[in-house]
Design goal:
mainly beta, single chain, about 10% helix, Adhesin domain-containing protein, 2 helices, about 220 residues, 15 strands, 15-stranded mixed sheet
Length: about 220
């Protein structure tokens, strides 16, 4: 019985359609503009820094559930957006995609000390050693801020936020989620749903506001 089940599982996996991926890359020169990113549902958006004066966006997408990537460059703003388009696929593949939605992932490469505003519906976000000002707004997802210099403002409905900080004033609030730290916060201002204080100096600023998200703050000197 077990051997027959193994055969059935193998046949099922073997007959599933292979999902075709594609990568779209767009790059423009950076001239101290603000960077605005507006996306729909995503898998992951990661910010990476470069020493060059360029802004580069890379989208890894699925041909079975494709998105259109647009970049508009003006004197004051670089606008990046994506829009889901109807796929031209067979019904069986389309049915499989609806059962298991496929969302694009993005890598955004930006210079240091720039202003970045990002909005998307649902998905995950990650950045390491970000330098600049970041405003992030989403509905649901996991957010990882692994050390930064500057100002980071995060607003979300639910999910998880993990930030590793030093020399930072933190203002975090979650109405129904948990707020935890890996360091001593005896001198910080605390309520049932908020935590305000400074780790080290006030060189940087972290603000997190949420309804249901869990928030974890780590000390970068102990990691």
């Amino acid at each position: 019985m077990k051997s027959n089940l193994s055969i059935y599982i193998f046949i099922y996996l073997f007959t599933q359609p292979l999902l075709a991926q594609k990568t779209v890359v767009k790059q423009i020169d950076f001239k101290n503009q603000k960077i605005e990113v507006q996306l729909e549902d995503i898998d992951l958006l990661e910010i990476v820094h470069t020493n060059q004066n360029i802004v580069k966006i890379s989208m890894n997408d699925y041909e079975e559930n494709p998105s259109k990537l647009d970049v508009i460059n003006t004197e004051k703003i670089i606008s990046i957006s994506s829009l889901k388009i109807m796929p031209l696929v067979h019904l069986e593949t389309e049915k499989n995609c609806y059962e298991q939605p496929l969302f694009p992932s993005y890598t955004l490469i930006v210079p240091t000390k720039c202003d970045v505003s990002i909005t998307f519906k649902n998905g995950n976000f990650s950045t390491n050693n970000f330098k600049g000002n970041l405003n992030l707004m989403l509905n649901t997802g996991d957010v990882v801020i692994d050390k930064f210099q500057g100002s980071v403002n995060v607003q979300l409905f639910s999910g998880n936020v993990e930030a590793t900080i030093i020399n930072t004033q933190a203002i975090v609030q979650s109405n129904h989620g948990k707020i935890l730290t890996t360091f001593n916060t005896r001198t910080w201002q605390k309520t049932e749903n908020s935590l305000i204080g400074t780790l080290g100096s006030k060189k940087n600023l972290l603000s997190v506001k949420s309804i249901n998200a869990n928030i974890m703050l780590n000390n970068s000197t102990t990691r």
